[in-house]
Amino acid sequence: MKGTLKMSNKKIESLTESDIAQFDIYVKKWIDIGLSTEPVDLENAKAAVCRAYTNVGLSEPKNFFVTKSPIDAIKLIKTLAPEKSAVDIFNEMSYGNHDAGWLSFYNYFQEVKGLDCVDKLQPLMDMVKYCGWVSFYEDTVIFQDRPEIIKFDDQKRLHCENGPAIRYRDGFSIYSWHGVSIPAEWIENKHIALTPKIALSWENIEQRRCACEILGWARILRELNSTVIDSDDDPMIGNLIEVDIPDVGREKFLQVLCGTGRTFAIPVPPSCKTALEAQAWTWNMSPKEFGDGPEVRT
Question: Where are the beta strands (DSSP E) in 44-196?
């Protein structure tokens, strides 16, 4: 890793193996800070904020408030400053513990390489350990609680199949499907709010894909004009079908019977020419490696 960072009297032009070996320590430290679900620690957050103000020559703020979410903070600030719009208030917010990404960079070089020119950031690095987003004003600071729930899929994308992916303590929530924001009713009331017709005509293509996955491709495919390309005698290997998805084009799916007796469909690469080839692909095998299939299927 090369580059140049200036300290008070010298430069950092490279990192040693020992320096690099400490990356994981700081990655874990700051991911834990960024993903904390603890409520505001008011006294420690106030102390850090006061140091941040005096560090840049400002008087310490006198008024402190704690809110439960960004929406709750906007409501409070509107009562304190009615002339401000919700957009202005939101744009003025600092991201608190969600600033972990860039603060981690400076914390690493401060502690590992003695980069003292970033010491003025120390109050902010302290503050983000104790609160979520923050609104700074001349004599007033509004802290926000961090979310009480944050859920991810196995690739660390925001995701939850049976509730909000992010939920704050006042109930304000964000729904996400493998990293894509979706309407809350697709999860909370999907039997009424989400139908194949709605899914297939949804304007946003990424959200449309999510809607189809939530409903299940087997159900969606029943609504489309599908063509069977290849059928295997073994229903657990299934049928390779092709369909025309609005605004997307021709796509291939493997329609298969699982070990529970349910039929489902899996998107497969357009290069697949047989059901066996598609089934082997789902196991990350070639058709030859797959053979008659694994001994146990679930």
Answer: 63-67, 134-136, 140-144, 149-150, 166-167, 173-174, 176-177, 180-181
In this predicted model, what pLDDT tens digit does every residue of 105-137 receive, in sequence order?
Answer: 999 999 999 988 889 999 999 999 999 999 999
- Residue 59's identity, in one-letter code, is S
Nearest to 34 by CA among 95, 93, 98, 94: 98
3-class state of residue 112 by DSSP: helix
Q: Two tokens at 177?
A: 């499907």
pLDDT in tens, 42-94: 999 999 999 999 999 999 999 999 999 999 999 999 999 999 999 999 999 99
Tell me how many degrees the CA angle 246-250-251 measures, rounded to the nearest 5: 105
pTM for the full model? 0.79
How many beta carbons lie within 10 A of that of residue 173, not counting itself? 19
Q: What is the structure's pLDDT at 13?
A: 86
**pLDDT level of residue 298 (50, 70, 90 thresholds):** very low
Number of H helices, E strands in the chain: 14, 14
3-state secondary structure of 50: helix
